[in-house]
Write a structure and sequence with these properties.
This protein has 800 residues and is of the alpha/beta class. Among the domains are: 319-489, Rossmann fold (3-Layer(aba) Sandwich); 547-672, Sandwich (Immunoglobulin-like), CATH 2.60.40; 717-798, no CATH class. The chain is built from 25 helices and 30 strands. The longest helix has 19 residues, at 276-294. The protein starts with a helix and ends with a helix. The structure holds beta-D-glucopyranose (BGC). Beta-D-glucopyranose (BGC) is lined by residues 48-49, 62, 109, 156-157, 235-236, 352.
């Protein structure tokens, strides 16, 4: 944020009372910050995010339960990352910024930039990639787009929030090198490139400290090392210890606790436990945001244009996983369209990002509107059991067709914020339908709608597979554009699709509720599959086109005379097919054979180029020192081993077309290769790493799990049910929530699951947020006493 705002803000903050300053550190209501009217500091509205606006005009919640105003629902990040196209993401960001302006929203709560550690994470649909470079580039572009409209963003969920199970209470145990190279790297890139106005801290602990209290992660790293100038807010209810969090540099608690925590800040300053300067720093950052937004006026925007943009984004993010002969569809061929999703699209995910779309176009709508003849059969009930009658009907439609387009994928209730998937399968009724369709001998084109990777037992037996992920409100038109060949599929996978869940690097170390050991360290996604030499269904970076491309002439040389780095890789790409199309050129770097353990290759640059048939283009990509470096945790910095690196250019992580060797000097001091960690040096030989190896990498023992008793304010509602008072309390809360959300209609079933999952792992202290201030620190103390069996003391505490 420009320092001019901070200067002005500092002048105003100097005139504020301590109470006023503390008041700026928490929300006024669910979606608004507080004002200091007498000094002209206005409150502003923040709203989800990330791929559309979820502005709630009435009842508020952070789980997508209550209604929100209509907004354009763009494809989710799982899809948009596959575009490998920052310019496109920037345009989408501009449109989001315009919708925020039209609704007087000051900060959009996104992008969501957590790394996909396991395909099971319930929120993977909202996240970009398993790769931090791609994540950082996509996030930066979206941020630049939104902020170009003078609307802020909140890059989230910072940090190491890679599962939904127990997201509010678990402890991510991650070694420093993995933090730096994988989990921080995307945030780092986007912060340095695009300066999001805010970051949002996650709920979880990182190596034993809640994100909100973590000074190293809230201040030292982003502000000290990366130059982050913005403010940091909590995720909704992610505040652990308000006073410690001020010291950590956590500016804004959302949605707030009705002033209770503001009072704790004031009290801590008065008692000399907290310096006023630390409160000032937070108040200045909040005031600067308010000043920056003050001139915004509500400006209408063009929702029709955004609807069209949503179609383009979906189209240019779609990945052709398998290409047979049926696509693009030839005119005049009889078409059977099978699958409930063709009529009732699966186009977005559940939870806080759930958008109320301005329009919704299914594949059937698009076919009807363009007058393309087809026969439709439902084929399966998305949320129902196997139904032979539906399969029969589908087979009848297929019998009359030349080509079958089958729309399959994950049902709505299977992936959501709040819980993870338990497996990677598609519903049985859909697989059975696919088998029946394949058995007809007709060419089958599978169109997939899913928020994450799934296993496809029939993948080698269909003609083609077009992966849409969750394609947003105009996905139907995008699918039809691609099927008809009016557009060329040009998305590339932003995550590996493994063959089986048991192949995934964190298998057995994902989804726990206490310590979550990130045993795999830097071996996330293709970094693992390549090193372990595992077959995969579809590799990272994979995606086909209706045309083909040839690569030639890779050279690597210093970008400037007189210095080794940065380097510039140059190569030529030629469209050798008969149709125009986009190629995504990917440049990876492979480390020297000797030295510190490292992945086989890592994505270091990419470019998307448009080529007419026969056309060639020269692509130049810069490779700076970081492209060759690893994080040396012992020395506390980025280092390079001396030796021969290989620059690789290809069409996916497993389709390397050209290589060029580069000899580089190592950086001082020489790092000692970690030869004593066999699983990390050679995952193909032994996996997973033992506890001993992991602890050696971590440089500390894995912390003991917290004992169940005595209960504390950080005990979860699931845990306190072990006591009588806890059971009664749990039942009361559950009933209240049911009452509160009954009547929110449609998605109540999936919401029921979200609520149950949320309550199970929710720390007691979080109820302060849900109670809108009724649960004061004294009431909370008293409750905890009672759960520990001290009823009288508990009652006394409550009355304090
Ligand atoms: C989610 C955030 C979201 C917030 C507000 C939380 O449950 O984790 O991503 O921005 O709610 O809705």
């Amino acid at each position: 944020m420009a320092t001019e705002w901070q200067k002005k803000a500092a002048e105003l903050v100097a005139q504020m009372t301590l109470e006023e300053k503390a008041s700026l550190c928490s929300g006024k209501i669910f979606w608004e910050t507080k004002a200091v009217e007498r000094l002209g500091v206005q409150s502003f509205m923040v709203t989800d995010g990330p791929h559309g606006l979820r502005k709630q005009a009435g009842e508020a919640d952070h789980l997508g339960l209550n209604a929100s105003v209509e907004a354009t629902c763009f494809p989710t990040a799982a899809a948009t990352a596959c575009s490998f196209d920052p310019a496109l993401l920037r345009q989408m960001g501009e449109a989001l910024g315009e919708e925020c302006r039209a609704e007087s929203v000051g900060v959009l709560l996104g992008p969501a930039a957590n790394i996909k550690r396991s395909p099971l994470c319930g929120r993977n649909f909202e996240y970009f990639s398993e790769d931090p470079l791609l994540t950082g580039e996509m996030a930066a572009a979206l941020i630049e787009g939104v902020q170009s409209r003078n609307v802020g963003t909140s890059m989230k969920h910072y940090l190491a929030n890679n599962q939904e199970k127990a997201r509010v209470s678990s402890n991510s145990v991650v070694d420093e090198r993995a933090l730096r190279e994988i989990y921080l790297a995307g945030f780092e890139r986007a912060v340095k490139k695009a300066q999001p106005w805010t970051l949002m801290c996650s709920y979880n602990q990182i190596n034993g400290t809640y994100a909100s209290d973590n000074k190293r992660l809230m201040t030292d790293v982003p502000r000290g090392e990366w130059g982050f100038e913005g403010a940091i807010m909590t995720d909704w209810g992610a505040m652990n210890d308000r006073v410690q969090a001020i010291r950590a540099g956590l500016d804004l608690e959302m949605p707030g606790t009705g002033g209770a925590n503001d009072a704790l800040i004031v009290q801590a300053v008065r008692q000399g436990r907290l310096s006023e300067a630390e409160v000032d720093a937070c108040a200045v950052r909040m005031t600067a945001l308010a000043l920056r937004l003050a001139a915004n006026t509500a400006t209408p925007c063009d929702k029709n244009a955004h609807h069209e943009l949503a179609r383009r984004v979906a189209r240019e993010s779609a990945v052709l996983l398998r290409r047979g002969t049926a696509l693009p569809l030839e005119k005049g061929r009889r078409l059977a369209v099978i699958g409930e999703f063709a009529q009732r699209p699966r186009y977005q995910g559940a939870g806080s990002s759930k958008i109320n779309p301005t329009r919704l176009v299914s594949l059937c709508d698009a076919l009807d509107e363009r007058g393309v003849p087809y026969a439709y059969a439902r084929g399966f009930a998305a949320e129902g059991a196997a139904d032979p009658a539906l399969v029969e009907e589908a087979l009848r439609a297929a019998a009359q067709a030349d080509v079958v387009v089958a729309m399959v994928g994950l049902p709505d209730s299977w992936e959501s914020e709040g819980f993870d998937r338990a497996h990677m399968e598609l519903p049985e009724n859909q697989n059975a339908l696919m088998e029946a369709l394949i058995a007809t001998g007709k060419p089958v084109v599978a169109v997939l709608s899913t928020g994450g990777a799934v296993t496809l037992p029939w993948r080698e037996r269909v003609d083609s597979i077009l992966l849409m992920y969750l394609a947003g409100q105009n996905g139907g038109n995008a699918i039809l554009d691609l099927l008809l060949g009016e557009a060329d599929p040009c998305g590339r996978l932003a995550e590996t699709w493994p063959l089986a869940l048991t192949d995934t690097p964190c298998h057995g170390f994902f989804g726990g509720s206490g310590n979550v050991e990130y045993r795999e360290s830097v071996y996330v996604g293709y970094r693992y599959y390549d090193k372990a030499r595992r077959e995969v269904a579809y590799p990272f970076g994979h995606g086909l086109s209706y045309t083909d491309f040839a690569y030639s002439g890779l050279t690597v040389r210093p970008a400037k005379t007189g210095s080794d780095l940065p380097l510039e890789a140059e190569l030529t790409v030629t469209n050798i097919g008969a149709r125009a199309g986009h190629e995504v050129v990917q440049v990876y770097v492979a480390p020297p054979a000797e030295g510190t353990f490292r992945p086989v290759r890592e994505l270091r640059a990419f470019a998307k180029v448009w080529l007419e048939p026969g056309e060639s283009r020269t692509v130049r990509l810069a490779l700076d020192q970081r492209a060759f470096a690893f994080y040396d945790a012992a020395a506390g910095g980025w280092r390079m081993d001396e030796g021969e690196y290989t620059v690789e250019a290809g069409a996916s992580s497993r389709d390397i077309r050209l290589t060029a060797p580069v000899r580089l000097e190592g950086s001082e001091p020489e790092a000692a290769p970690a030869k004593t960690l066999p699983s990390y040096c050679d995952p193909a030989a032994s996996w997973p790493p033992s506890r001993e190896q992991f602890e050696a990498l971590l440089g500390a023992p894995v912390p003991p799990e917290r004992p169940l008793r005595p209960f504390t304010s950080n005990s979860t509602l699931g845990q306190v049910r072990a006591s009588l008072a806890g059971r009664i309390f749990y039942r009361t809360i559950r009933k209240n929530m049911e009452k509160q959300f009954s009547g929110t209609g449609d998605g109540m079933e999936e919401f029921g699951r979200i609520i149950d999952a949320m309550l199970e792992d929710m720390p007691l202290r979080q109820l302060a947020m849900l109670s809108g201030g009724a649960m004061t620190p004294a009431v909370l103390d008293g409750l905890v006493e009672m759960m520990n069996g001290h009823y009288l003391r508990g009652l006394k505490n409550m009355r304090r």
